[in-house]
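Handout, page 2. Input:
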Amino acid sequence: MLNKKSYLFSLMFILIFCSLGLSTVLGDGGNVININLTSSGGRSGALFNNSMLLAPGVSQNGVIRINNQAGQTVTVRSLALSGAEVRDKEGNVITDKDNEAYKAFTDNVEFDIKVKFAGLIPYSKKVILNEWLEKPLELGLGSTKIKNNQSVDISFTVSMLGGAGNAAQGVSVKTDIVAVLAGDTDVNPPVKPPRDRDDDRDRTASAAKEPEKPKHVHIFNDIDGHWAEDYIHILGCELGYVNGYGDGTFRPDRDITRAEATKIIVNVKQLKLENGKTDYKDRLFFPNWSKPYIYTATKHGIVKGYPDKRFKPYREIAKDEAVAMIVRAFYEDEEEDPKILEGIFTDEKTFPIWSKGYLAKAYKEKIINGYPDGSFKPLGRITRAEFVSIIVRYLNNE
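Output:
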């Protein structure tokens, strides 16, 4: 058993070591790393200021604070590491990623990222430093909009795993952390933050720089700066095919229901609304406003019920269901050979058999795309913004 003097010495050593490590990881800002989004294009901060003192079993906590000082609403989709320098114990930069010390270090430094943006469910994501150096860390719950002069906090814990071994001793890293905005084609901040002009989940980015568009005058009060702002403006403000809510919002990140999706398609098709009795078992529970839309869409073969003969108007529509509905409406229910999807999406094996032909058609017509990780997630829910973006892509093709 340690005597009192030895115990105090050990405790003091631990506190000094941890405080050194914490100040190194978090830089001059104490326990907060500030990323300032400015009108001049700045959007980065120092994740590791000079070096990092970590050992197996030692964890350090911090907060990444994204401050919007750009003068307009911005949408942040991910966080990337930039200009990383990994140095050996002699202080030399390691350029060979197969170097034993480099791999031992980067493969065993783990971040536990905890994100909570206003109105969204908190979640936790663990990522290894090596993975983060290779590609941006997607925030997972979709893009987050930050109004001017407001900020969001992302807490994290960084630790070194036991597999680091002796090879990682004395190795350190210096890197900046960059906020990647919706519409960015890479992680290098442009001179001026661009207006979001495309789906931030699009895996294919245009290399051509588009001229800045004049600011829209919207009928919705919650789409400024959203990645789908232009899509929503076209379909809602210019064409009048989509409506918002009574409080003036569009709620772009809210999942769209089957009834709402049906109404949008009927409006875009400019079909004459008809009233009639459908064979759906749950027809008595349809929202009154939706009844003529569901009847009209059913009559034209655009929507179909489930095997149990129910329509389920309140149910959030799955992505493949939405795509099937759009293909039936705008492409005369013409499916495509599913083979054209081979090697396109990483989760192709999860595609339901019934919807593959519809998804293949939509992909061929270039109205759908995948997520940054290469997946499509056909069984996942689709937001109002995502649904509108597919419709507008169709209209643009026409």
